[in-house]
Amino acid sequence: MIQTNLVSNSIKEQLKQLITPEELQPNSIEEVVKLPPFFEKMKACARLCETTYSEIDHSLQNALVLRRLQQMTNTLMLNPLWKERIEQSGLKEAPRDFEEWQQLPVSDKETMNDFFMGDRPGMVVPLNYDGFEVVASGGTSGSVPVETVYSLPELDDTYKIAGQFMGQYMLPDFLIGNDPKWIINTLADYQMWSSGTMVGGVLQKIPNINYLAVGPMGKQVYQHMMSYKGPKAIQGVTAAIARLIEIGVDLNEEARKSLRVALYGSGVLPHRNQLELKELYPNLKILSYFAATQAEAIGLQLKAESSYLAAVPGLHLIEIVDDQGRWVAEGEEGELVVTRLHAHESPCPLVYT
Prior knowledge:
The chain is α/β, with parallel strands linked by helices. Among the domains are: 1-105; 158-186 and 197-290 and 299-311, Rossmann fold. It contains 15 helices and eleven strands. The protein has helices spanning 2-16, 21-24, 29-33, 38-49, 58-76, 80-88, 98-101, 109-116, 152-170, 194-204, 219-226, 238-242, 244-247, 253-258, 271-280, and strands at residues 132-137, 146-151, 182-185, 210-213, 232-237, 259-265, 285-292, 295-300, 316-321, 335-340, 351-352. The strands form three sheets. A six-stranded mixed beta sheet has the order 4-3-5-6-7-8. A three-stranded antiparallel beta sheet has the order 9-10-11, with no helix packed on it. Strand 1 (132-137) and strand 2 form a beta hairpin. Helix 1 (2-16) runs parallel beside helix 5 (58-76) and helix 9 packs across helix 10 (194-204). The longest helix has 19 residues, at 58-76. The protein is globular, with a radius of gyration of 21 Å.
């Protein structure tokens, strides 16, 4: 046991050094722009541990994640607004551990509105450096619509990470055989909404699959799409998935059997609807896909027989906190907050979903 602990501690120290001291504390915007992507650090971590990142022991993942949070805090301190906000929490430098990390204030919709709309004073790297995407939330979890700014290269990394995870752990048992395999996105991708473009970005990166960006659809389009040969998965809001009962009633048997997975979000799919869907589509598995404005994949239901949702390792730090921003005990209720780990240029930690 002592030898095992020594090996584990040795690996943790090596993991910390994957983000070098120079990278840990950038001194200027120009240095932030040149920081290696966190995705590269995840891949180096996987090589060091000789396994895929998703299957690395949590204590080792946490060592790298804490180092990334320290780097993020140091980066935020380059921005006067964030520096003031961090110092008001009692921290004068990057948190030494997760206990100190919990001192940082949670960012609500009003904070995001003040920091990332208008002149966007909360951005570390200004927009005139280019290479960003701006997406919007309609304020579904509150009365305040907000915009969020992402680095396009870092978005591409998160899409790859989440897509690979879905392909490896969520869909491989369902989309099988030699026929073409399809993933269908019915989310709206217009008016700057985050849902269609960001979830679509993830779905496009699932390995060995064909992607269809359909958006909100009627019966004619759906039935045409279902005529494509091969197994299919479909993603949509709860109401859109429930509507597959109505618009699929005239499908032939081969088409109905080809629908293997329905991924639903934005609400709970009633049990009655699930039973009706399974009766119409005999091979169908129904799984939850939980996303939000600032996070394209927060929780994924990997098994139909279990309601537990899995976070994509290395994508975000996901915390359940009390009204003081402190972690609640296991089994206790709290608020869900998310920190994007892939956000050198426009970080926004501890965001309420």
